[in-house]
Amino acid sequence: MEFNTLAILADEHEPAQKAAAELKAQYENVPANQADIIVALGGDGFMLSTAHKFMELHKPIFGMNLGSVGFLMNKYRNEELLERLEKSAPIDLHPLSMTATTKDGKEHTALAINEVSLLRELRLAAKIKIHIDGVIRMEELICDGVLISTSAGSTAYNLSAYGPIVPLGTGLLALTPISAFRPRRWRGALLPQNTVVTFEIIDPDLRPVSAVADFTEIRNVTRVEVREKQNVYPTLLFDPEHNLEERILKEQFLP
Question: Is the whole-model pTM more than 0.85?
């Protein structure tokens, strides 16, 4: 990958700030909107927030892990950064577009790189009707919630909810219940990436539900529509030996 300018960004934690200072002393740093590549220093949360912030600028992002898990990041090294960037491999992550309608009739939109999740707000279980491409596939899911995940997000909340890991390039989304009570044995579904999923909240006054797209939470929803967005997406860069496809595949064989 050819480039001329870098923007070095870091989260607020001390390790990331220290690393940013070291890199800025070695490499020329410009504002993100002027850079060819953004270098993000932090954990997965910082990578997600950076990807959201600069998604529409179509700036490729090379993350280096200074957080905990670092699933979306490369290993941190302050040497040979330019060489690593030249050899890095890009991956486009198509986000989910959420349109949530609230009890007051207002519509709210947000994008999710990982997942869109619906969660009960109070002690009573949520009751949710699920439409797939306009067809009712589940009349009533009684649950703590339900989520729909991208491939990139399938190893995050989706996996914690016992959803399937979805390798990149399969063209699939994971629909996964969260603590389903009825139907008790339903474990979710794999759907084509062009599917439109609509969640209809049953009795939202008694059983209020919130909808969350990555960092954006909308409370007291009555209807949520989710579809993949094709024309806006972040591009993440990975070391060839540490690529995201391999990590997602490897997750399926961990003990």
Answer: yes
> What is the Cα–Cα distance from 49 to 44, expressed in whole angstroms?
9
Tally the domains of the chain. 2
Each residue's pLDDT tens digit, 9-21: 999 999 999 999 9
Give the active site residues: 44
Cβ atoms of residues 179 and 143 within 8 Å:
yes
Return the closest-CA partner of residue 142 out of 82, 77, 222, 207: 207
* Contact assessment for residue 40 and residue 63, using Cβ atoms and an 8 Å cutoff: yes
Give residue 242's identity as a one-letter amino acid code: H
User: For 186-222, how does the pLDDT look when each residue is reduced to its tens digit (9 = 90+)?
Assistant: 999 999 999 999 999 999 999 999 999 999 999 999 9
Domain that includes residue 46, residue range: 6-93+233-251
What CATH number does residue 132 fall under? 2.60.200.30
